[in-house]
């Protein structure tokens, strides 16, 4: 429904300096200032996905900043967006949420320059982030080319670990893995955008791998093939996935994209769950020519993304995602 509403907004063509708007489904908007600079802007916030208020703040801030990195931008400033049940949530816990977000922004070299809070029934926290990018270095999710390989920067399974946590069945190691992944800044996106060989870039978040992969395909008018055996999974995820832990969001993702995703006959349900598992602050997804893959992978690995690997390729053909 929201996509239908957004599609009725004035088209970007009416505003020639709006280089990226709602048309491609990218996570950030980009507005050209001059031939050397463009402003990147985004906002993202959600309710707690963990009980620890400090970790909640860290995860939410990392997720919001990722939208800037996912188009190749460099964040320069953030504003906090927050709602707290002030009569039932302690001042200490509220301070911890804000401190967690500020710590991530500090690590990113970004000041939290202000913000806005309201009294809310449930805690809500996130950021409105402003960044900069050279207009020639913008990496949309719609510019992949046939023959490109697809590289994913982080392991999958955040949603499944979260589902186990919600049932009080996630062990300490699983919680550690989940928090480490969701608080790892995707700041390598700005460096990837400087590589002329990188054609398209996005981050894998709420629509899961196959949902975001289909957006890649739709924008470029191409088909994608994903190799199941090459998919990186977060440590401990396989065990929880095979035990049946899953999220309602993964099911909704399948309802939305099942007509565009083809899986092998006999694929196990837990495997299907992972393909649509919603990721909070998930990995960057890159499209580049095969001859540039080594350079892209080195860029990821040098930045600490040890799980980054090739997971498939783009091809000419019907706009869909095929898992082999």
> What is the number of helices?
11
- Biggest β-sheet: count, sense, barrel? 7 strands, mixed
Question: What is the global morphology?
Answer: globular
CATH domain class name of the largest domain: Alpha Beta
Widest sheet, order of strands: 8-11-7-12-9-13-10
Provide the domain count. Answer: 2
* Helix/sheet category: alpha+beta
Could you give the distance between the termini? Answer: 32 Å
Can you give the helix content as a percent range? 25-40%
Order of helices and strands: HEEEHEHEEEHHHEHEHHEHEHEE
What do we call the CATH homologous superfamily of the largest domain?
A: PurM-like C-terminal domain
Task: Characterize the structure shown.
The two termini are 32 Å apart. This protein has a 7-stranded mixed beta sheet. It is 35% helix and 23% strand. A hairpin with an 8-residue loop joins strand 1 and strand 2. The longest helix is centred in the first third of the chain and has 17 residues, at 53-69. The chain has 2 domains: 2-136, PurM-like, N-terminal domain (60s Ribosomal Protein L30, Chain: A); 139-323, Phosphoribosyl-aminoimidazole Synthetase, Chain A, domain 2, CATH 3.90.650. With 324 residues, the chain is of the alpha+beta class. 46% of the residues are buried. It is globular. The protein is built from 11 helices and 13 strands.
């Amino acid at each position: 429904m929201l996509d239908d509403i957004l599609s009725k907004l004035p088209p970007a063509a009416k505003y020639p300096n709006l280089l990226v708007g709602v048309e491609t489904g990218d996570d950030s908007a980009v507005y050209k200032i001059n031939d050397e600079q463009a402003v990147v802007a985004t906002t993202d916030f959600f309710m707690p996905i963990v009980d620890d208020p400090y970790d909640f703040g860290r995860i939410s801030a990392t997720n919001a900043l990722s939208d800037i990195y996912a188009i190749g931008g460099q964040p320069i400033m953030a504003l906090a967006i927050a709602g707290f049940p002030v009569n039932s949530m302690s001042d200490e816990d509220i301070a911890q949420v804000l401190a967690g977000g500020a710590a991530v922004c500090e690590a990113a070299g970004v000041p939290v320059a202000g913000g806005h809070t309201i009294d809310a029934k449930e805690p809500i926290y996130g950021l409105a982030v402003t960044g900069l990018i050279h207009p020639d270095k913008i990496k949309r999710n719609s510019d992949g080319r046939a023959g490109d390989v697809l590289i994913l920067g982080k392991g999958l399974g955040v949603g499944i670990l979260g589902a186990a946590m919600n049932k009080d069945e996630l062990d300490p190691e699983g919680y550690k893995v989940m928090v480490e992944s969701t608080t790892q800044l995707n700041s390598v996106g700005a460096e990837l955008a400087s590589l002329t060989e990188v054609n398209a870039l996005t981050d894998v978040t709420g629509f899961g791998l196959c949902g975001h992969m289909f957006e890649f395909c739709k924008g470029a008018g191409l088909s994608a093939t994903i190799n199941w055996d090459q998919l990186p999974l977060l440590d401990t995820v396989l065990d929880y996935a095979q035990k049946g832990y899953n999220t309602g969001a993964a099911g909704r993702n399948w309802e939305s994209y099942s007509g565009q995703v083809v899986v092998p006959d006999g694929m196990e349900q837990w495997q299907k769950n992972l393909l649509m598992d919603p990721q909070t602050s998930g990995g960057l997804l890159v499209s580049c020519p095969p001859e540039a893959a080594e350079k892209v992978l080195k860029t990821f690995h040098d930045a600490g993304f040890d799980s980054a690997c090739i997971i498939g390729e783009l091809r000419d053909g019907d706009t869909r995602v095929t898992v082999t």
